[in-house]
Design a protein that fits this description.
Blueprint lengths: L12 H4 L7 E4 L5 H12 L3 E6 L9 E4 L5 H15 L4 E4 L14 H29 L2 E6 L3 H4 L5 H21 L4 E8 L5 H4 L3 H8 L10 H11 L11 E4 L8
Parallel strand pairs: 1-2, 1-4, 2-3, 4-5, 5-6, 6-7
Helix pairs in contact: 2-9, 3-4, 4-6
Length: 254
């Protein structure tokens, strides 16, 4: 009979329990580049997507909330607005991050601490607040956006690499702490991605970078988004504490 459910077919858990098909998703730093591609991927699947942004004009089509994740009060207010309009966050993608590259002997303490406060401590803030609703619901998906630099290291990026490496230990600790509550924590580690940040590089710089990548090209933001979307899907329900490289083979073995 047309439309009948085949014998042996098992609906994903969130469908069988009567949950709405559209989840409340938050992508921090979702106004451009990788974050925007991730937000679009979830929106195309019918999810209710909120993004945070710190400056500029946000893209249309999302619940855009201005929020500096280095400010705990702004984080709290952002969540209140999102919860009021979309309900508690069920999928969190912690993507917001900054760079302040400099060789160690020229790196100021502010250069170091500001990068760590945004990339690592800022992630702590948004994850802790999201978990309030996830614990009540006894389910949730958290994906942290790290970097191949956090695994390989990079001269002139000690601050950035330290912050991104810290996300791995943070996610794996929470995976052990909250796995029994059906909340998963995973990390995606992009390599070099074709975004506005890399578009400013010279052809010589781009060629030098690509020469290090076994696949011989930059990633597209949509390829990072695909990995994130998978980790938030029912197909990844038994994956937690994982670090998924999307780097063209650059960081293999790390």
């Amino acid at each position: 009979m047309s439309g009948a459910i085949p014998i042996g077919f098992r609906l994903p858990d969130r469908y069988r329990k009567g949950d709405p098909l559209s989840r409340s998703v938050l992508v921090t730093g979702g106004n451009r580049g990788i974050g925007l591609a991730i937000a679009r991927a979830f929106a195309e699947s019918g999810d209710k997507v909120a993004i945070t942004y710190r400056s500029g004009e946000p893209p249309e089509g999302f619940l855009a909330v201005k929020c500096d994740i280095t400010d705990g009060e702004q984080v709290e207010q952002a969540y209140k607005e999102i919860e009021e309009k979309h309900g508690p966050v069920e999928v969190l993608v912690a993507n917001a991050g900054v760079t302040k590259d400099q060789l160690l002997m020229r790196m100021s303490e502010e250069d170091f601490t500001s990068v760590v406060d945004t990339n690592l401590t800022g992630t702590f803030r948004v994850v802790k607040r999201a978990n309030r609703g996830m614990l009540r619901a006894k389910k949730g998906r958290v994906v942290l956006i790290s970097s191949v630099v956090g695994l390989l290291g990079s001269a002139g990026q000690a601050n950035y690499a330290a912050s991104k490496a810290g996300l791995v230990g943070f996610a794996r600790s929470l995976a052990r702490e909250l796995g029994s509550r059906n909340i998963t924590f995973n990390v995606v580690a992009p390599g070099f991605v074709d975004t506005d940040m890399t578009a400013v590089l010279t052809d010589e710089q781009r060629s030098g970078i690509v020469s290090q990548v076994p696949l011989g090209r930059y990633a597209q933001p949509e390829e990072i988004a695909a990995a994130v979307k998978f980790l938030a899907s029912d197909d990844a329900s038994y994956i937690t504490g994982a670090v998924i490289p999307v780097d063209g083979g650059l960081g293999m073995g790390h």
